[in-house]
Structures are given as C-alpha cells and as structure tokens.
Here is the input.
Amino acid sequence: MELVCPAGTLPALKAAVDNGADAVYIGFRDGTNARNFPGLNFDEAEARQGIEYAHRAGRMVFLAINTYPSPAQWDKWCAAVDQAAGVGVDALILADPGLMHYCTQKHPRQRLHLSVQGSATNAEAIAFYARQFGVRRVVLPRVLSLAQVRAIIKRVNVEIEVFGFGSLCVMAEGRCTLSSYVTGESPNMSGVCSPAKAVRWEETPTGRQSRLNGVLVDSYGPGEAAGYPTLCKGRFAVQQNTNAAHDAELPHKPYYALEEPASLNVLDILPQLMEAGVVAIKVEGRQRSPAYVAQVTRALRAALDACARDPQNYKPRGDWLAALDKVAEGVTHTLGAYHRPWQ
Amino acid sequence: MKLSLGPILYFWPRDTVLDFYRRVADAPVDIVYLGEAVCSKRRALRPEDWIQIAEELEAAGKEAVLSTMTLIEAESELGVMRRISENARFTVEANDMGAINMLAGRARFVAGPNINTYNAGTLAMLAAAGARRWVLPVELDRNTLRALQAARPAGLETEVFAFGRLPLAFSARCFTARAHNLPKDECGFRCGDYADGMLLSSQEDKPFLVLNGIQTQSAETYNLVAELPEMKDLAVDVARISPQSSGTFEIINTFHAVIDGTLEPAAAPTRLAPHIPYGACNGHWYGQAGMNWIREVGAEAVFSAMGGLKRG
Here is the structure.
C-alpha cells in the first residue's frame, strides 16, 4: 500500500519525502483546494521545486483542485488545472464533474484521481467517474465500514485510496453544507470548513466559550481543554421527547451530538485494508506543521513496512501509537466508520 | 412557474403517509417526489406502495417522480436504487452519482439537490447524460443561478428548493440513535418519534439544527416565498416545498396563490409564519450564511443573524 502524505508548505513536503511518503499531495495557494487557509499552500514555483525534490527521491506529487467552481470562478479553476498539468504533477485530484470534463478535453493524458470531496461512496458512483472521465483512483469518503470498502473494491476497476490518519469528517464529504449554513463558506465552495475568521473566543464568568459567526459551538469549564470550534464537533442539547419511555434515553445536558473531537487512526486494521486491496493510505492535514507531517509519516511508514513484511503477525507498536496520539486532534483516536459499532 | 413537493424526509407511520398523499392529490402542486431519500432501514412503505401512490397521483394529474437515497453505501441499497432506476414508467430523481450511472443514456432523469451542480460544465454533462431537470444545490445563491440559467442547455428545467428545513449533511452515523444511546444496528426506529426531526439547540437554548437519522437539517425554515417574483425573472421552472408534519397544505396554497398572482408576495410571510416553528432563513439565496434572514428594502438589504440585527 502506498503512503500518501499532506504538505501545506515546501518544508512539509520535504519532511514527508524524507520520512518515507510514497506520494505527497499539495494544493495551490487559493480557493481551488479544500484547505484554503491563510499562509498555506504552493505557488507555481514552489510546486515545481516540490515536484523536483520528490521526483529526485523517486516519490510522486499529487495536486488537489477539489472545490467546486461557480461560473464566476470557472476560468480561474481551469487555469489551475492547466498550471498543474504544466508543472508535471503525477496525478490531479479533482471533485467537480465539469472540471474533470475540461481536463479530459484539454489534457487527455493527465492522470485523474477523484477527491474525497467527489463523494463517491458506492461502486456505481465510482463506475460513473471511471467511465465518464477515465478516473484512475478514487479517495473514499470516511463514511464506509471495512466490509463496505471490501465490497466496493471487488466491484470496481479503479484504485481505491482510503483515509488512514488525521481529523475525522463525520459527514459524507462533498455533501455537507453545515459550514455555509452558519458562515457562508463551505468546503465545496470556498475550500474551508468552519473558517477561522468566523471564530470568536470569549471568556465568561462560567468559563470559555467558542462561537462561529455568533453561534455558540461549545463552552468549557475552568481547566477544561478547548478544541477548535468545528461545527460538527460542538456540544449541543436535545429537547424533550414526547414519548416518555424514550425520553429517558436522552442526554439531558449538552453533549457531542454529532462527533467527539477525535482522530481517525487505522493502525489496528492495516492488514485487513491491505488484504481488501486498498492501494493507498492517505494522511489528513495539509494545514498542519512540517513536524506533524514528519512524525505521522515516520510512524505510518514503519507500520506499513511491518504489515507488508508479515501481515499475520502484525501488531501496532506502542511507540507508533504514542507518536500519533501526540499529534492527534482531541485526546482519543477512533477507527471511525471502518468500525461497525461506531456507526 | 410550477410547484413541487419534495420527498418526505422524516419517518412517518405508513397510514400517515398514505393519508398525506391522498390530500396531495387534491392540492395545487404539479410535481410530487416520492420515496425514502434518507435511510434505507425505514421500510414502512414498500417499493410497490410508492409505485401505487405514484399511479394515483398521476391519475390526479400530477407528475410523479421517484427519488433515490442520497447516501448509498451498502450493496442492498444499490439494489433498491437499481429497482427504482429501472422502473419503466416514472421519472427518477437521482440524488447520488451512482443513480446517474444507472440512468445515463437509458432514461430521462432529474438531478436532485444533492448532486453537486455548481457550474455550466456540470450542467452540460448532466444534460448529455439525460437530465431533463436539475435542482439548484441549496448553498448556491441567485447570482450563481443567474449565470447557470444563461448557460443552461436547451430543454433542461430548473428547480429551486424554496421552502422547508434545509438538508445540510449526511453521515454514516445515525444521530437520532446516538442521542438515544443506541447503536445504529438496533436503532429501534427512534426517528419515528420525531415527525419533524429532533431539535438540537445551542447551549444558550437557541434552536440550531434538526437531527433526522443520518441527515442533519437546519432548525430554521428556508423560505423563498418573497423571492418567487425574482425566481420567475430568472426563468426558474419549479419551486420546491419540503413536506412537514403540519401546515404543508397551507404552505402549498400560499405559494400557489403567490405564483397565481392572487396573493401579494409581501403578504405571504404572515400567512406562513404559523408553519415556521424556529424562525425563517434565506441567506443562501443572497450569497450569505444560510441561517441569515434578509429582507430587501429598496437597494439595501437588512438581515438578522442569530447574533442579532445587523445592517449590511
């Protein structure tokens, strides 16, 4: 299985290559990709440098143009596709069907991957992108169980890449507009979720509060660790259920109604993913530091090598898990949807 | 402009559903979307039941459309989608690219609100695959719609989600079961306890979201009744109303009266107010946060966000 690691900067790309990534994925410094954060990402010159660095080490660079351009943005997004093809990326990661069509017409030999934002969660949807645009690899949304991943791989003839580590989207990617409902900006349109400019922290007599465009996302007691107010990771309250018998089941105080802040970590199931025929494991986090990239890449490289050597006796080592937990979001890690009970 | 009724997004008892569509047959809607679009475990009605409702509505002069689910993961769900797609009689609303793969080149279809149609390139691709109508994704604004209308392929109809709680997200996880501390596999169909979904409030008791099984909706009701004249100017063909447990027929009548010209658009919000339990929103239409409420006063838009009244 390939190890595909994130890079938001040239030092992060080098860290990924130096620590054993088979491929590094990057984006341009604008709204054309789903990690459109201030101070992050690559201009054309940096992309060229990064590609040269990776290719010299025999590694690949993928570039994500995975937001959905509006008519007003269309020309700029097409220019980004041209630019990516021009600098010689090994694969272009796209989500928008219109843009994929453009790419197949203009750059017929460019290798295409379907971004997780493309939201293909089943074999028929994957077949559509393969047939229409010659997509060679699909990144699966983080909503599928291991059994479902296995069933999809049996039915499709494109490569399947899955997320292995990083922050967890609890919603089907590409079909979540929680962020634009609250802030006007979403991953699909603007390449951001719960954007930092809409965040406000407030100290109150009862503790610290986090708000997103005025909406109270969470509040923390004295000494309680506070997390970034991503909408789906806030604590909210449910109302009473008129069905008295079932009302007793409800939490009658604010709780993580959608998702706890936790990191996805698939170290426990690497042999199963390999046996299922997964081609690549992806690490989330282009917005994270070179130190994060180095640490995660090193741990996953060691785990993947151990798994490939002897899958029967593979067991995640304590020091790998400790290294990953240290940089994880929240205090716990989870198998996410791969693990049936989570659903 | 035609009026459509979207699929029932909640889990209502079988008899409630049957009664509801008996009333729909006499209501002034032109198009009715049918079927379970949210969770494959909800099987109070079988596919044959939906076909029968479709036939009855067709006999009453409506266009009946069968909607597919939005999040398709399991093989069994693909099977249901295939059966719907291969029905030879009724148009299908595709809510996943998988459904479009089954329909492309074989039958004319509707590209639903959960197909990511953001630009003319995608619109052209959908038309070439056989779409006869497309629904504007809920997060898109009127300026984007205007540009898409200008580039729209001939013969393709445009529909806009115009009233109801906004479907915002879909997950593998069932949030209703999670709230009840039950595993999804043994959910006990708790979503059946909530005819309009389960209200989720912020820690300062402001209604925020509605949990509807694996679907998350807005608590506020998206209401574009005052924007109907503008939609008409933009050559929108269909305005969609999303069913709710009470008031749906009053909402249909109000929209119909505005489209008909018998009710001033400005008078409509008062009539709709009793059917909007947690406030209205229309921000997406104006390119703002969806939860905002914008009232156009001359050239100036006045809007109130959850944080209070502002001027913009």
Summary: Residues 298-312 of chain B have pLDDT under 50 and may be disordered. Residues 228 and 259 of chain B are 7 Å apart (CA to CA).
